[in-house]
Design a protein that fits this description.
Blueprint: E1 3-4, H1 11-20, E2 25-30, H2 32-40, E3 52-58, E4 69-75, E5 83-84, E6 89-94, E7 100-106, E8 109-117, E9 123-129, E10 132-140, E11 146-152, E12 155-162, E13 168-174, E14 177-185, E15 191-197, E16 200-209, E17 217-224, E18 229-237
Parallel strand pairs: 1-2, 2-3
Antiparallel strand pairs: 3-4, 5-6, 6-7, 7-8, 8-9, 9-10, 10-11, 11-12, 12-13, 13-14, 14-15, 15-16, 16-17, 17-18
């Protein structure tokens, strides 16, 4: 029993399908966008039939082999790996949660340039190496936040994070949090420039208050993270 895209929005069709299959759903989606629509349905959650989804996906004319279809297995037990349409060149990789990758592939892994799109609307991509972020990357979150930075072997270490409220951090990262030297510009124009540790201001730094006004105050010194204050510093007004 097959489900074509016209049936994807039918909760009853999904339930009927589950009665007849022992090996998971086979979705004739056509495009990864259609498959994503199906993954969003309440009828298809992580408690899906044996955690397996077979999907028929078509390449675009610019992809390897031109416009043709491929059947992929997206398995919850191997959800982090994904399933690629082709081993090498440009194609798709589909994940069990509905996320998909489109770009360059090598040995069935993301390798080269490409981007991922998640079911909640986050888009991230850039340079890849063996399924890991490696090189320049851009994350555009559904919330409006944007991160542009450098990654190596799946770990981000430097970049610019623009938050939804307009605040910006530009500097070093460790494990996806502020760590090292960096500058944080607040929505009101105040600026902190200095050292960070575990996402918190740390050690030497300076606060520049009212930087967008006609005057400003610079406070330099040692930052006490447990009090969120500077000490042993001095002020200068301009």
């Amino acid at each position: 029993m097959l489900l074509e895209f016209e049936d994807l929005t039918s909760h009853e069709a999904n339930l009927e399908y589950r009665k007849h299959t022992k090996f998971g759903h086979l979705i004739i989606a056509g495009t990864v966008q259609n498959l994503m629509v199906w993954k969003k349905l309440n009828a298809n959650t992580q408690r899906g039939q044996r955690g397996r989804v077979w999907a028929s996906i078509e390449h675009t004319a610019a992809d390897e082999g031109g416009r043709r279809g491929y059947i992929l297995l997206a398995d919850a037990a191997n959800g982090d790996e994904g399933s690629a349409t082709v081993e090498n060149d440009i194609g798709y990789m589909v994940f069990y949660d509905g996320e998909y990758y489109h770009g360059e592939l090598k040995d069935g892994k993301a390798h080269g340039n490409g981007k991922c799109t998640t079911v909640i609307g986050d888009v991230y991509g850039g340079e890849w190496k063996d399924n890991k972020c490696h090189g320049k990357w851009t994350f555009t979150f559904a919330s409006g936040e944007v991160y542009d930075g450098e990654w190596k072997d799946g770990i981000g270490f430097e970049g610019t994070h623009t938050f939804g409220n307009g605040e910006v951090y530009d500097g070093e990262f460790k494990d996806d949090i502020k760590h090292g030297k960096g500058t944080y510009t607040f929505a009101d124009g105040d600026v902190y420039d200095g050292e960070w540790k575990d996402d918190i201001k740390h050690e030497k730094g300076k606060m520049i208050y009212d930087a967008n006004d006609d005057w400003y105050t610079i406070v330099r010194g040692a930052w006490h993270w447990w009090q969120n204050t500077l000490s042993d510093g001095f002020n200068s007004e301009c």
